[in-house]
Amino acid sequence: MSRPVLTFARLVATPENRAAWVAVHDIASALRGEAQDYRSPASATPPLVMLHGPPGTGKTHLVHALAAEVTQKRLDLVVTILAARDLLRAYQPSLFTEDGEAESVTEGINLDEARHCDLLIVEDLQHLNPHAVERLIQVMDYLQARGRPAIFTANAGPQRLEHRGERFPARLASRLAAGLVVALKPLSPDSRLKVLQTFAQRRQLAVPTEILRWLADRLTGGGRQLEGAIVQLEALAKFRREPLDLATVEAAFQDQCEAGRMTVERIAERVGGYFHVEPKDLKSQRRYRNVLVPRQVSMYLARKLTALSLEQIGAFFGGRDHSTVLHACRKVENALNRDAVLSGAIREIHAELA
Predict the structure, then answer these.
(1) Could you tell me which residues are beta bridge partners of residue 166?
(2) Which class does domain 189-259 fall in?
């Protein structure tokens, strides 16, 4: 069965995606001519929008729904959707033949063609090869000067955007930061329940709320996983004469729930990635200065998000005793009220893990 077309009507609005929803709706309205002319400098709709967040937060759905919406209403509009990982194909360094002659590489995406579109969408900027950055900046400036909107998606905001551990040039980050930057957060359990209920209603599938709540508390993925869960419930229901019960659902989803269970390993990997520290260093007994705070944050989150004892957490992080873990947790808790930067970092990591 083919996947349904991503549209605004199919997207479930939640507190986590509301700001992004408003941003893409404003662009759609401007492109359809329902608001101020998007080419006008006085337009309230910013010509550049960046949506960032971890996988499963709905970035792809939003930008593809925007493209479908505007092209259905305005057949004359040209929308270009590009994957950042493909942009290098036309701009990678020349290859050389056996005779030493330079051979131009012309396969793949020609980014210059994007200059002629009415709306440019570039997905997953974190996969953009550094060799394509300058050409992309040129296209961004060209569209910006003409008031044509461009939307970018990525897994991190402009200042934290990187390719294989290397930050992108400030020229790209500054242009992205000058637009409207919207963060999408992972769905909370309540939002996941709302999404599950909506998907079930659309398929006219009657499922007890206790079952959907159980799934919402355990399936920590995004909309695709939740939609897949409803499809799986529908299949289960077809093979049963009696209504679905919680015991049957628990057995059917045991592997999925186990895979999504929070572990201290996942926490260490996520914290290490945020602070650019190897997880093995967090587990080391050595007291590197650049590792101290990330290790304390990891211990704090492990205590918040797992059922492990202080002794078990300490054992993972270099065999430290329970008093060291308790001290680390208290230091982080005290810092949350004084250090806005650290507080924001912990909230972001916590949201992505929860």
Answers:
(1) 163
(2) mainly alpha
Cα–Cα distance, 62 to 15 (Å, whole number): 15
CATH number for domain 8-183, candidates 3.40.50.300, 3.40.50.10330, 3.90.1720.10, 3.40.50.200: 3.40.50.300
Summarize pLDDT for 6-47 with one digit per residue, the tens. 778 888 999 999 999 999 999 998 888 764 444 444 445 568
* Ramachandran angles phi, psi of 120, nearest 5°: -110, 130
For 304-337, give one letter per residue: b (16+ CB within 10 A) or e.
ebbebebeebbbbbbebeeebbeebbebbeebee
Quote the CA–CA distance of 305 and 68 in Å, as a whole number: 39
Q: Specify the domain boundaries for CATH 3.40.50.300 within the chain.
A: 8-183
Helix (H, G, I), strand (E, B) or coil at 77: coil
- Do the beta carbons of residue 173 and residue 161 sit within 8 Å? yes
**Which runs of E-coded beta strand occur in the chain?**
48-52, 79-83, 95-96, 102-103, 119-123, 150-154, 162-163, 166-167, 180-183
| Cα torsion through 269, 270, 271, 276, rounded to 10 | 80
Residue 127 burial (10 A CB sphere; 0-12, 13-18, 19+)? middle
List where CATH 1.10.1750.10 sits in the chain. 264-353
pLDDT in tens, 203-247: 999 999 999 999 998 888 788 889 999 999 999 998 888 889 999
- At 337, which amino acid appears? N
Q: Residue 60: count other Cβ atoms within 10 Å of its Cβ.
A: 19
Query: What are 182's two structure tokens?
Result: 């919207």
- Whether the CB-CB separation of 168 and 122 falls below 8 Å is answered with no
Q: With a threshold of 0.85, does the pTM exceed it?
A: no
- Asked whether the predicted pLDDT for residue 2 surpasses 50, the reply is no
Q: What amino acid occupies position 284? A: S
Evaluate whether the domain defined by 264-353 bears CATH number 3.40.50.720: no
With beta carbons less than 8 A apart as the criterion, state whether 126 and 97 touch.
no
Continuous segment of H or E residues that includes residue 344:
helix 340-353
Helix, strand, or coil (residue 52):
strand
